[in-house]
Amino acid sequence: MTDETVADPDVAVEPRSLSFGGHVLAFLGELSGVVVGAIIVASLLRALVGQMFLIPSSSMEQTLQIKDRVVVEKLTRVQRGEVVVFRDPGGWLNGPPAPERGRVGRALEFVGVLPDTGTDHLIKRVVGLPGDHVVCCDSAGRITVNDVALDETSYLDTPPGGEQAEPSMIPFDVVVPRDRIFVLGDNRDYSRDSRCHLHDQTPGAVAGSNAFVSEDLVVGQAVAVLWPVGHARRLRIPATFDPVPAAAAAPAVPTIDAGPEASC
Is the confidence at residue 140, as pLDDT, over 90? Predict the structure, then answer.
């Protein structure tokens, strides 16, 4: 029979103390775990929920100014009258490239801390949804959607000391096809939007199809200006879109009637 030593459960055992270096390593290990977790969460939020974008041009003035930071949410469906960010459908972008960020800047942009400065995205206002009949212009010079005239005075650009921009100097009459949207900039005189691509020739597609942005290319809806502070505000759908009735069944291919000016 052998003797065995049994630890008294009521006696506290003093834990082994860590050296200073051990404490530092333990802290760094915990910190790295927190940082990695935060990066994963931020990346998921950026990919699935929301993202910031930097406005590079004047095409949406006065609604959005150059260098404004806008918040784009990705959860809801596109609605008529919203401002949306979308990837280039092909041949829409011709501006100068954005300044290249350093490694730290690119990393912060990737996780959503800094706004996206990529040059493959555009931002415009949705005027027509699938099936909508969009016409420029009626006898009063207004764009109509499904036979309802839009009062766009609340958002069309008005330069300081100048007159408000016309709804469009390019006449057109279109029906938006299935799974596509028709978009216009608020600064109509300086916006290469859907009107400018109504004569585009795309291999394997009906002429002018490139004017209608595929819903798959839409990144999300701009919901607020975050920076600079003086511009910060929520972006709402203008009330003029409220009475526009639902569209008819959307055709598979667009209906397009546009003059030679529709090439910008």
Answer: yes
